[in-house]
Amino acid sequence: MKILMLGWEYPPHIAGGLGTACQGLTWALAEQGVSIHFVVPQLFGGEQAGHMLLTDQLRRAAAPSADDGGWSRRHASFETTRIPALLQPYWSPSQYNSAAQASRAARVKPKSAVPRDDKVAKALIDGEVYGVDLISALYREDFYPEVSGPYGEDIFREVERFTGNVITRIASEEFDVIHAHDWMTFPAAVALSQLTGKPLVVHVHSLERDRSGLYVNQQIEQIERFGLEAADRVIVVSHYTKRMLEQHHGVPAEKVTVIHNGIYPRQAVQDYKIKKTWPRHVVLFLGRITFQKGPGYFVDIASRVIPHIPDVLFVMAGSGDMLAGIVERVEELHLQNHFLFPGFIQGEELEEMFSIADLYVMPSVSEPFGIAALEAISFETPAIISKQSGVAEVLDHALKADFWDVDRMADMIINALLHEELRHELMCKAREEVKRLHWDAAAQKTIAVYQDVAL
Amino acid sequence: MPAVSLYFQVHQPFRLRKFSFFEAGTGANYFDEGLNELVMKRAAERCYLPANEIILEALKRYGGDFKVAFSITGTALEQMQLYAPKALDSFRKIADTGQAEFLAETHYHSLSALYSHTEFVRQVQMHRETVRDVLGQSPVSFRNTELLYSDAIAQRAAELGFKAILAEGADSVLGWRSPNAAFAAAGSGIPLLLRNYRLSDDIGFRFGHAEGPGRPLTAKEFAQRLSTIPADADTVGIFLDYETFGEHQHAESTILHFLSELPKALLSMPSWSFTTPTESAQRSNRRDPLPTPQVTSWADAARDASAWNGNSMQQSCLSRLYALENRVLQLGDAQLLEAWARLQASDHVYYISTKAGADGSVHSYFSPFDSPYDAFIAFMNVVRDLEKRLE
C-alpha cells in the first residue's frame, strides 16, 4: 500500500511533538511494509528518513543522512534509496486543468457511490477554501519555486503555497491513500483527494482550541472543520481529542479512530545519569512557552515548592510568546535563583536535559497527547502530567493532577523530591509501561484505517 | 468425618483523606469521615444486615448443627457504633445465641505482628476487651490480620493464651499435604486451622465471574465439591471476607441466596457437620507440626506479606510509622495514639501496592485513591503532620 503523507515538520528540525510523532509512526508503518511518500514544506538537512521518501513541497528529496538513527542498519533489507522523478516544473492553468481532467477520468474506482460533499466541491471550484486562496495558488505562473527562510511571517501564505505546490507537483504521484497531519496540510489534502478521488485520512495531533483556549483563530478553526468534514476518516491521538471533536466540531464518533502515539525505547541513558553533576534537584518544564502548555501554572507551582525544597532548580526549556512575561513574573516573585531558562533546546542538549532532570512536569491546559511525557520516561525521568492530556489515558505510572490544581502539583513535586522511593517506583513501573506503548501497535491500527478507507 | 469451619472476616478501615502537604500543622482531620460513613452504611445495608438475618435464621432453624465464626476488627466495631448501630445490634443477636464464635485479632487490623511486638500485644488485648464489652463474648482463638502467619506469630498467640490460630493453607507451606488435615504450629504446638483457599475462593472470587455451566455456583454444587474430600479429612476451612456476601459480590448475583442455602445443602450430606475454630482445635489430638518459618497470608497470588510491604514506598511508610511508637507512647496523648494506631491499618499500605495483573485490580478495587502514588503521598503527608505534632 502506498501512502501519501502530508506533514508540516520532520525531525530534527521540529517545533513540537508533531514531527516526533510523524517520525515514530512512519518508522513503524515502513517496518510493516507500507510505502510512504512524506511531504513537508521545507527540508533543513539532517533528516533521518531512510525508511521512506521524504520530500519538500517542490518534491526535492531529503539528502541521504549519514545518521538515520540506526534504522537502515537494523533494516538492511528495506529499500532506502529512491531517486525522485522529475516533474513538470511549471504548469499553466490549462495544463493543470487537463491534468486534473485526465486524473479524474483515470479514476478507476470512485471512492463511494455518494458524490463528494457539495460544500467541499464548491469551495474548490470557487477557489476559496475558507480563507486559503486556492485559485491564486493554482494559477500563479511561478508557483513559489523557492521557499525561503523558516515559515511564520504569515502562516496562511505558507499554507496556500504548500497547497498550490502539492496540487501541482504531487498530484500525479501514485498512491492509494492520503494521510494529512494537522490543519496546515488539510487544504492541500482535501484538494488532492478531490483531484484524484483517493480517500482522505486526516490525523489530528492538536486543535486550535487546544493551542489557544478561548481565543481561537476563527480562520484556523474553519480550516480544521473543513478538513474534518471532507475526510473519510479522522485519526486522533486520544479519547480526550475525540471528545473535543464531538463537542466542538460535531464530528460523529464513528468517523473517528483513536490511535495513541507510541515511543521507541532508548539506550545509552545511563551515560547521562552518571554524568549528572548538578548539585541540585531539577524539575523540568519542556515545551513551547505558550498558553496551551500552562507555563504560568508551572511558576505558581514552583513558588509553592521552593520554600520547602531549598535546593530545587526549575528549568523551563523552550521558547514562545509567553516567555518574556514568565521571566518577568519569576523576577517579581524573586525566584530567579531557582529558575533556569535555556531557551529552545534540541538534539543532545535535549537528551541531556531530560536525563539529568529528577522530574518532568507537564501542566498543560489542553494537551491532545503530550509525547514529551513518554520521552521523559524513556530517559528514566518520572513524569507529573495534567489530567487534561491524552497521555494520561495511556500512562498509569505517572502522577496526575488537574492543570489548575497548583497545590496538588506542588504536593506531588515536594513528595517526589523528598522521597526517592516514590521516584524509584514510578520509574520502575513506567519503564515497563512505556515498553508496551510501542509505535508498532499504532501502526497496526493505522493500517487498519487505510484498509477501511481504501475499500 | 470432616467438618466445615465457616469463618467470616468483618473489617472497615478509617480511610484517609487526600491530605495535602500544605495542610500539615493546620490541625486538619486525617480521615475521610464522609467516605467512611458512606462505605460502612453501604456495607451494612448490602451485607451485614441481610447476611446476619440469614445467619440468625439458620442458627435458629438448625439449632446446634449450624455453626459459624466471625472476626470483627475494632475499627469496624467503632464505625458500626458511629454509622450503623443496627448492624451492630444484629451481630449482638448472633453473639447472644451462643452458637457463633468471635475471634480475636489486632484491634486496628494492623501489621504490628511484623513490626512491633509490644504494639501487637497492646492491640490484641484491646481487641479482646472490645469484643467482650461490645458483643459479650471473650475470644479464645486468634486470627491475625489478613491471616498473616508464621511460627513466630503462632508462638505469640500461644503466649497470649489462645486455644487455636488460623492461617492460609498456602501451597508453599503445605506442599503435597492437604489443608484439611489437623496441624499444629511448629514450636508452640498451638492447634492450627488452615484455610482451604480453592474452595474459599470459589465463593469469594469466582462466584459471580464468567458465565457458563456451573455459574453462578449453587449451594448444592458447592456441597458436591466438598463431598469429594476424603472421609479422613479433619476440618475444611472456608474463610471469607464477610463483605463478599452482597458487597463484593452483588446481591443480584444471588450470593445471599447461596449463603441461605448453604447450611441445608451441607447438613443433608451424611456425616458432614459444621464446626468452629475452637471446637475444631479440640477435635483431634494427633496434630502434625507444620513448620512455617516464612510469613504467609491470604492475600494476592504470592500469599505472603508482599501485598503490604512488597515495594519500597510501602516499606518506607511502615518504617516511618513504626519509628514513632516510642514518642507516641511517651507523650500519652490519647488522640494522637488513636490516630497513630488507625494509620497502622494494613489497608493504607495495601493501597500503595504497585502489583499488576489480577492482584493489582483487587488492590485498586479496594483503594479510595486514584493510584498507589496518590495513596503514598496522602499517607506520607499525614505521617509528616503526626511527626510534627509529636515534636
**Separate helix tally of chain A:** 19
What is the overall shape of chain B? globular
Structural class of chain B: alpha/beta
The major β-sheet of chain B equals: 5 strands, parallel
> Beta fraction of the residues of chain A?
5-15%
Descriptive report:
The complex is a heterodimer of chains A (455) and B (391). The longest helix of chain A has 17 residues. Chain A is an alpha/beta fold and 455 residues long. In chain A, helix 6 packs parallel to helix 7, helix 11 packs across helix 14 and helix 12 crosses helix 17. Chain A has a 7-stranded parallel sheet, with helices on both faces. A 6-stranded parallel sheet of chain A has the order 12-11-10-13-14-15, sandwiched between helices. Chain A is globular, with a radius of gyration of 23 Å. Chain B is α/β, with parallel strands linked by helices and 391 residues long. Chain B has 18 helices and 12 strands. In chain B, the strands form 3 sheets. In chain B, strands 1, 2, 3, 8 and 11 form a 5-stranded parallel sheet that branches. Chain B starts with a strand and ends with a helix. The chains are: A alpha/beta (455), B alpha/beta (391). The interface between A and B is medium-sized, with 21 and 18 residues.
In short:
The complex is a heterodimer of chains A (455) and B (391). Chain A has 455 residues and is an alpha/beta fold.
Topology readout:
The complex is a heterodimer of chains A (455) and B (391).
Chain A: E1 2-6, H1 17-31, E2 35-39, E3 53-55, H2 71-74, H3 93-105, H4 118-126, E4 128-129, E5 132-133, H5 134-138, H6 155-170, E6 177-181, H7 186-196, E7 200-204, H8 208-212, H9 218-230, E8 233-236, H10 239-249, E9 256-258, H11 269-275, E10 281-286, H12 295-305, E11 312-317, H13 323-332, E12 339-343, H14 347-356, E13 359-362, H15 371-378, E14 383-386, H16 391-394, E15 399-401, H17 406-418, H18 420-436, H19 439-454
Parallel strand pairs in A: 1-2, 1-6, 2-3, 6-7, 7-8, 8-9, 10-11, 10-13, 11-12, 13-14, 14-15
Antiparallel strand pairs in A: 4-5
Helix pairs in contact in A: 1-19, 6-7, 7-9, 11-14, 12-17, 17-18
Chain B: E1 3-10, H1 33-62, E2 68-72, H2 74-83, H3 85-96, E3 100-102, H4 112-115, H5 117-135, E4 141-143, H6 151-159, E5 164-168, H7 171-174, E6 183-185, E7 191-195, H8 197-204, H9 219-227, E8 235-241, E9 245-246, E10 249-250, H10 255-267, E11 273-275, H11 277-283, E12 288-290, H12 306-309, H13 312-322, H14 325-331, H15 334-343, H16 346-350, H17 357-366, H18 372-390
Helix pairs in contact in B: 1-2, 1-3, 1-10, 2-3, 9-10, 13-18, 15-18
